């Protein structure tokens, strides 16, 4: 199946990521870092759609944890329902792999929103309208990608986090080295991808209902995971912030429900483990996605914290292959949409 373009893109992620890391240059962000220190922006607003938006979630966390006034809003909601969030003193940071999806184009004509103080673009296509409209481009250097987002997603996660550190004046080189280690671990994980697809298939079967839960930076894989399960394998799954799952959806906890819980950041790992044990007590087929051993584990390699959001998406990507086989469709093939969404 390695001639399948989607699977090939999955397998190419580690090398693509290394290229993006090698080519990331924080120097262009230095003037913005100084402007942030001098309080020249009233806020930073991060926006995007789909996987691009979800890839920016750890970036939002990094900046918010540093105490900056930073917002995270999907572009469709921004241009139609919350345009007042953008002011003449806003630093607008747009994530878009293509740089030309419908909502991004609408945002860039500045008819829906106020023209901001400056635009940063995290983008793959440097000839796109987004790249040309931005004062600073942060290239993700993923190369051409024709099916469901894989290389573009993990590269956006990586360079976005490095860019956030650069804006905060923090140590980019140590983070780059940690992400290089993550890329190597991803390569080792994917080297035996066919047996991993088989093992994940044996563990999960073909569930009637599937929910994916996470907290903190793991929400990137939580939401992107359910997105690509629909895109790549035509299987519908539901994403939940793990804490929110107790506020109502816990009533769904029966034996025909399967749940994947990302162990996630250390701060909330024990809370997630408690939820796993509670779900198991309700006879739910709940599984723990992590490097630490657990009776109900889907194992991933241990990587530095900055690399966890990248590693967490890999078992979900492999799960899309298993589900596509069960449903009888070609993994990653589009039937209703396409690589770039050109209509709202």
Which features does this protein show?
single chain; 344 residues; alpha/beta; Rossmann fold; five-stranded parallel sheet; 10 strands; globular
Can you characterise this structure?
The protein contains 14 helices and 10 strands. The longest helix is centred in the C-terminal third of the chain and has 20 residues, at 308-327. 47% of the residues lie in helices and 15% in strands. It folds into 2 domains: 5-186, Glucose-6-phosphate isomerase like protein, domain 1 (Rossmann fold), CATH 3.40.50.10490; 192-327, Glucose-6-phosphate isomerase like protein, domain 1 (Rossmann fold, 3-Layer(aba) Sandwich). Strands 2-1-3-4-5 form a 5-stranded parallel beta sheet. Strands 7-6-8-9-10 form a 5-stranded parallel beta sheet, with helices on both faces. With 344 residues, it is of the alpha/beta class. The chain has helices spanning 5-23, 30-37, 50-55, 57-65, 75-80, 102-108, 129-133, 151-167, 172-190, 193-204, 219-233, 242-245, 269-281, 308-327, and strands at residues 43-48, 70-74, 90-96, 118-123, 136-139, 209-214, 238-241, 257-262, 285-290, 297-299.
Topology of this structure?
Blueprint: H1 5-23, H2 30-37, E1 43-48, H3 50-55, H4 57-65, E2 70-74, H5 75-80, E3 90-96, H6 102-108, E4 118-123, H7 129-133, E5 136-139, H8 151-167, H9 172-190, H10 193-204, E6 209-214, H11 219-233, E7 238-241, H12 242-245, E8 257-262, H13 269-281, E9 285-290, E10 297-299, H14 308-327
Parallel strand pairs: 1-2, 1-3, 3-4, 4-5, 6-7, 6-8, 8-9, 9-10
Helix pairs in contact: 1-8, 1-9, 4-8, 8-9, 9-14, 10-14, 11-14
